[in-house]
Specification:
This protein has 126 residues and is mostly beta strands. The protein contains no helices and 11 strands.
């Protein structure tokens, strides 16, 4: 089992940037595909970005494409989400998630993610 801890959330003005980090412990980090999800009040959880075990492939939701970048450092057991050009509609609790993956370069679908962090709040003011 893997434990996930997010950090880096906060309050930022529209147009600003934040970088979220998620550090894993408990199991071999490189065995997991990783993802960032978010949930705003009254809305369903949304898949923001997901990355393969080896970092070679990534997925971005349409709402963040071109503004957010996911990356991972398997030597530091950490996955990152660089968020640029933030908009008020990006306001949400952001969750890091992990999924056991057999293949190193596969991006897994959202329903495969079964380990979750506690979330970090991101608030973008207009």
């Amino acid at each position: 089992q893997v434990q996930l801890v997010e950090s880096g959330g906060g309050l930022v003005q529209a147009g600003g940037s934040l970088r979220l980090s998620c550090t894993a412990s408990g199991r071999t980090f490189s065995s997991y595909a990783m993802g960032w999800f978010r949930q705003a009040p009254g809305k369903e959880r949304e898949s923001v970005s997901r990355i393969s075990r080896n970092g070679a492939n990534a997925y971005y939701g349409d709402s963040v494409k071109g503004r957010f970048t996911i990356s991972r450092d398997n030597g530091k057991d950490t996955v990152y989400l660089q968020m640029n050009s933030l908009k008020p509609e990006d306001t949400a609790v952001y969750y890091c998630a992990a999924a056991e993956a057999t293949l190193s370069s596969t991006i897994l679908p959202p329903q495969r993610y079964n380990y979750w962090g506690q979330g970090t709040q991101v608030t973008v003011s207009s």
